[in-house]
Amino acid sequence: MLFDLQSTVPQDISIVFVSDTKGTIVPKLISGALTRVPAGVNHRIDWEALKEVGAFEGDLYSELSFEMRRIRKEEQARKEEQARLEQARLEQARIEQVRLEEQARIEQVRKQARKDQKSKIINYVTAYGLIIVVYLLLYGNPFNSGTAP
Q1: Is residue 35 within 8 Å of 28, Cβ to Cβ?
Q2: How far apart are CA 33 and CA 1, in angstroms?
């Protein structure tokens, strides 16, 4: 059985069947949208009628009844607290993500600085090496007095 429900409050559904031949039947083998059913369309209730009452003749009518469920103040407060906790958890996760991204950026800057420092040292060593080579070419080796060992 499919039914639509238009309500601002979740409903508990109970169902009985009325038969011309068997009278009122309160189903036991029933499943589907029975408790805390929100507003919506095509809610489904299934009843295994043949298993429960066997074969029957005549017409069978269903009677649905609805009972509104009020949300208690404690339950509402608990839901609000859960929402606040979830919001705090999401904010904490966002902060942790920002912290990790910032940490990665700092490490990247440090690596680049070390690379730049190594490049400067290599450039200085290369420059001083060239200066020494030019000096030696122009003026000779000052440590060599011109006599062979």
Answers
A1: no
A2: 10
pLDDT tens digits, one per residue of 7-52:
777 777 778 888 777 788 888 887 887 777 777 788 787 888 778 7
| Residue pair 85/40 in contact by the 8 Å Cβ criterion | no
**Among residues 74, 76, 63, 70, which one has the least CA distance to residue 7?**
70
- Select from 22, 28, 27 the least CA-distant residue to 58: 22
Q: Are 4 and 40 in contact (CB under 8 A)?
A: yes
Question: Please, what sign has the CA dihedral across residues 16, 22, 27, 31?
Answer: negative
Q: d(Cα 133, Cα 102) in Å, to the nearest integer?
A: 46
Q: In this prediction, what percent of the chain has a pLDDT beyond 70?
A: 86
What is the DSSP pairing of strand 23-25 with strand 60-68? unpaired
In the three-class reduction of DSSP (H, G, I as helix; E, B as strand; rest coil), residue 2 is classed as strand
DSSP one-letter code for 20: T
pLDDT band of residue 147 (cuts 50, 70, 90) is low
Amino acid at 59: D
pTM surpassing 0.85? no
User: CB neighbours (10 Å) of residue 37?
Assistant: 19
